Amino acid sequence: GNTRGQFYIDAQTGSIEVVGQLDYEMNKEYTLRIRAQDGGRPPLSNISGMVTVQVLDVNDNAPIFVSTPFQSTVLENVPVGYSVIHIQAIDADSGDNARLEYRLVDMTPDFPFAINNNTGWIMVSSELDRETMDFYNFG
Of 139 and 80, which is predicted with more confidence? Predict the structure, then answer.
């Protein structure tokens, strides 16, 4: 119902207005019980009116990484395509607003790792040579 006072019902017109903050992640639906009362003596009323308000999600939550920083080790002789580490994030929104896409940012063209945009798996994309480079830090 209207326990937190998010809705106002105009007694004359029956118009329902949202007057308080709604948050899809907190409450996806409200069921309001409506009473209609006439002006007679004695006044007669009916409390069987029901209105269901469905709250739609907006993109109001940023993704959050499950843990950070992510760290891993990899042997220099693994084949190209080898999965090194699974990067995971979650988003409290729903539907398309919660669909995540992963990208490595600010990487040089010869960077030997790639990320699967859909799954978050970081893979070896070219041969590794520990004697040339023994540590990578990227975001």
Answer: 80
